[in-house]
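Q: Two folds, back to back.
A: First:
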Amino acid sequence: MTTTDGGRALIKALELEGTEVVFGLPGGAILPVYDPIIDSPIRHILVRHEQGAGHMAEGFAHATGRPGVAMVTSGPAATNIVTPLCDAYMDSVPMVVITGQVPSQAIGTDAFQECDTVGITRSVTKHNELVTRAEDIPLVIRQAFHIATTGRPGPVLVDIPKDIVDPKNPASAMEWYWPTDDEVASSLPGYRPTTKGHAKKVREAAQLILAAERPVIYAGGGILKARAAEVLRELAELTGIPVVTTLMARGAFPDDHPLCLGMPGMHGNYTAVTAMQESDLLIALGSRFDDRVTGKVDAFAPGAKVIHVDIDPAELGKVRRPDVPIVGDCRLVITEIVRALRDLSGGDGSADAVAAAQPDRSTWKQTISGWQERFPLVYEPSGPGDLLKPQYVLEELRSRAPEDCIVASGVGQHQMWTSQYWRFNHPYTWINSGGLGTMGFSVPAAIGAKVGRPDRMVWAVDGDGCFQMTAQELVTAATERIPVKVAILNNAYLGMVRQWQEMFYEERYSEVYLSPDLPDYVKWSEAMGCVAMRVESPEEVGPAIDKANEIDDRPVVLEFRTDAAEKVFPMVPAGLSNSDIVVDPSQGGGAR
């Protein structure tokens, strides 16, 4: 065996786990680990705020499927990364976060920059642990990556006291070893995710599918986490069943596919929302019946039976009791359902045989087509001298970007417009904060995505409110030569809050005005090392985007002056049924 110290053991463990990049910021308690990283092939990206490190790790994980890694010091650094941890926990993002901690003997004494990191993060991590011995570090790191990436993915935090990684401290001395897969498994006796679906339940699901007259596939983010996009398409094409893709599943099923209905939910399109509401069977795959999708739960899809497939047994029955619950990995379970459909259809198990075994759904298809024709996404184009329409900006961004462009968004109106007006035909090209709804997510997440996929163009679509929260990470992007592109939809308001105040608070606009000119986004972006342009008229939009797309040696920021009066439609008002969906005023407004 080789004698080493805890700090070097930690870095070596990260290397052996395949870590290519760590997003972080050093400080006193983690300093001993930052010394050996100088000699490591791991790339370290120095952030300007620990929240940025966490969101970059998330963006990296979204874009690559591999766990993002962040490393920060103790106390306020650890509390700063709590928001990304919670964000990753809500959206099932694989992430490993390493935090420094005060020396072991100082824990509990209110030492400088001490906090109970494990206690604070217990409810927002899949697993967390305070390491107490240097010799435990290799096993704990192996466990962290295993837990973060298997079963339902999620964030894992490892808290490490300074003394066990400091080579000057005897507590840091250890003999190097690397645990085997069997040793990792045996060290986690209570952790055994179920991946294969129950055969009887799979057969019952296939029987319900073959009997349904108005079925809808309700695809959630679990499809992407399970790498199940291909088998989802196989299931849809085999059965001819239309597919809705939730906010977290955009790209899991191609938007240009004839069976794609787009996004459901509070700001989903009319057809997706109403098809779910009027269905007689919901095939929920890796989705969790989020309140933004269901609206008023008691009134959600009242005539539908439910097949619910999820890797996390806690999700089954949490919101809606399924008729057929199946615990398992979506990719494996969908494959089994497809096999069962072929077996139950008789004949040669071909697509024709499966089609013949199902009811005539022509009326359902015609109904869906009628909704699509009558209630498409619409907006009123800008008139002479008007501010830009955000929808138009997004259409131009989309049409001028490569097919496989990755787009990250912040949270609010611009997030909904991006999901509505972009066309996601490839998986892992849409990165956003779904469950937690974290303002400031976009810029650092886009940076992390570009680090993970340097071959792809990466756009961040942000609002002026979101941008002001984490814009400093563009300094990181400029310094590290990470050429992300940022589109700020500047309407001088906290737009979604303003929309609610206009619609539900009698236009009493309380604390939502931000000013169109303060800060000056162009000067600010230039000061951070970016190329920046302001766009104010429709004829400027296309040329500005083309110029931004040509720049690939530094970050680019485009500020679009957009109309604050624009609202996101359709909309299901909070607390109401999806049947009370409000469409654009040009389509009659009000509930349809």
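A: Second:
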Amino acid sequence: MSFTAPVNAMQFLLNHGVDFDKITARPAFAEATPELVSDILNGASVFARDVLAPTNWDGDQNPATIDGRDVTTSPGFKEAYQAFAEAGWQSLPMPAEIGGMGLPSVVSVAVNEMIYAANMALGLCPMLTSSAVKAIDAHANDDLKNIYLDKMVSGEWTGAMCLTEPQAGSDLGPVRTKAEDNGDGTFAITGQKIFITWGDHDCADNIIHLVLARLPDSPEGSRGISLFLCPKYLVNEDGSLGERNDFSPIGLEHKLGIHGSPTCVMEFSGAKGWLVGEVNRGLACMFTMMNEARLFVGVQGVAIGERAYQTALDYANDRVQGRPIDGEKSDPIIGHPDVRRMLIDMKTRLMAARVLAMATAAADDMGDHSQAALLTPMTKSLGSDTGVSVASVGVQIHGGMGFVEETGAAQHYRDSRIAPIYEGTNGIQAMDLIGRKLRRDGGEAMRALIKDLKHINIEAEQSGDLDVCVQALTKGIETLSTATDIVLNASEKDALSVATPYQSLCAAVISGALLIKSVARGKMAGDAGAKNMGVLARYHALSIMPEAEAELEQIRAGASPVFDFPEAQLADL
């Protein structure tokens, strides 16, 4: 089952949707020339198509296995991962100071979309390694950095994060894993962790786990959690690998999708660990890892949606059934209006989610961390929800053949479903957007973003031929402003009850505005791709951005529609 990355679309959005020229004007990214970025995108496309994509189906049909203390990954995964590391893809976004290429995060968003689309289950491994590197680099002491970062940046060693326990999932306050001071600068870690993605495997020589645990006499709840680094194999003074640490996988989860990703139950039995950051500040350290992961989970949604879209498009170009409206009886179903409608809706929603993810990364590249923080929950939720909806429509286009496994459409649907759940459910993203990103600063960051959207609309007016988009965005900005004022002044119960509609409203307006921006800038630059992108922006303006108005009505109503129905009668009237 083939996959070809949408390189033209990615380059268009980089050039016109996210102010990439301003990013590369910064000294840190001066080497990211258009020629280099083009070469990287095209190289990643070939690697994803030829090396990673062929392993995707085997991973689904032949999941990882466990034998004693060791996990063996799906056929072809080890060779594909090692090729990934040897080609240097792991180091792409890492700072040059720690051995990385130092390229902008927005380029990494494009490259990683290709990797996840080619094989989402395998792509989770380098994603977790990248996030672990960021946490270690930000919070660990120099000794730990010197031992671990070089080989993690190169991909020779991989990373994993151990947060979840049977009683501690979204709320990590009840974590029970214990850490006891060994008196020599190390700690003994004891406890069980579940849902540990790529917790054990045979693709790399060592796996560096970041583990949340509780020291004796620490405060209860999340304020008493510390972060520890626990390598699968201890590292000798000369950098060689020593004995195996005292933890291991004791089971593999049987999942709906991403079968090729070994999701482990990990048992820590006095494992040797090193403190990362300050005592009782583990959750704050872990958020360095999780915030990046949330951005890239949104990218995963776009990626699996793109794979599902391409599979559906190929089928629609091949399947003959009925006579299309303007065609012959022997013509394929892509000529049927409703099939064409589904395809253009899929493509537009993916493009909108893609540009929002790029804009989030670009804000971080520009040092606008408040805007990056504001956009991250929207990116995670819009990207992952879009992946599920697009994959579902992909099954629909296949008809009955989509409901059986042989076409691959069902795998995309199954794989997509995890993204709205892990790294903080999309409901938690909405609560984060409302509580931490909007109400905490009185709406200051959102008002600055709305000001930017108004500038986009001015550019769209000046570029010409975008009247439909300008009208829709004018209304969208008004809707976003009204919704923001309502939420800022609402009670906590009302605000949290409408958090998800508010998040959806924001994503619909902002992603549509970014599409319009890319078209306006593209037209002014004389880019030939602006014409087709303009068609997608118009479809978004007519069919997707107006969804914000319906969300506004829910926001006006507050908690009442959610809580008025008696709890005792939820099972029946």
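Q: And?
A: The chain has three domains: 7-139, 157-286, 288-557.
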